[in-house]
Amino acid sequence: MKSPVSRAAAGLGALAAGLAMAQQPAPPAPAFAPAHLTGSGPRNMAMACAPCHGTQGKTAEGSPFRPLAGRTAGETIEIMGQFKAGTRPATVMHQIAKGFSDDEIAAIAAYFESQR
Ligand code: HEC
């Protein structure tokens, strides 16, 4: 059986270890590659458009939404820029466009251009 003294010493040791850990600087934030730079990133970001503009930017027949598939990247980038700036009339696209950086929009636009 441990003596009270050795138990107290063990407790102090644990306390010291806890303090030492508390004093360590926070670990650096993990480095994630920005979505537009990863292989599946553009497709994943384009999923955010799918509920309205259809899977892979292809709308269902009779949908009130315009398809995004097959548009030139330049057109999509231009329109998204207008939504972001608020110069193109919109109900929801002003908000959605603001959720993406210009680099991300370029990657999404390239993805939709490649969808035929
Ligand atoms: C909640 C439904 C919804 C989502 C999600 C959505 N859109 Fe839209 N989109 C619309 C609507 C509605 C319009 C018509 C403009 C408006 O009312 O905002 C539109 C218009 C557009 C247009 C212009 C089409 C044209 O020819 O005039 C583009 C380009 C576009 N969206 C791109 C995107 C992209 C890229 C995403 C994903 C990042 C996206 N949208 C996500 C609903 C949506």
Summed up, the helix count is 6
Q: Bound small molecules, which ones?
A: heme C
Question: What is the typical, i.e. mean, pLDDT?
Answer: 89
Reported for the largest beta sheet, the result is: none
Helix and strand content put the structural class at: mainly alpha
The span between the termini is: 76 Å
Poorly predicted ranges: none
Helix content: 40-55%
CATH class: Mainly Alpha
How many beta-strand runs?
0
CATH superfamily: Cytochrome c-like domain
Order of helices and strands: HHHHHH
How many domains is the backbone divided into? 1
Quickly give the CATH architecture. Orthogonal Bundle
Radius of gyration, whole Å: 26 Å
CATH third-tier fold name: Cytochrome Bc1 Complex, Chain D, domain 2
Q: Which range does the strand content fall in?
A: under 5%
The gross shape turns out to be rod-shaped
Structure report:
The model has no long low-confidence stretch (mean pLDDT 89). This protein has six helices and no strands. It has one domain: Cytochrome Bc1 Complex, Chain D, domain 2 (Orthogonal Bundle). The termini are far apart. The chain has helices spanning 4-23, 41-46, 50-53, 73-85, 93-98, 102-113. The protein is rod-shaped. Helix content is 53%, strand content 0%. It is mainly α. The structure holds heme C.
Question: What's the topology here?
Answer:
Elements: H1 4-23, H2 41-46, H3 50-53, H4 73-85, H5 93-98, H6 102-113
Comma- or semicolon-separated keywords:
mainly alpha, 0% strand, binds heme C
Please summarize what this structure is.
This protein has 116 residues and is mainly α.
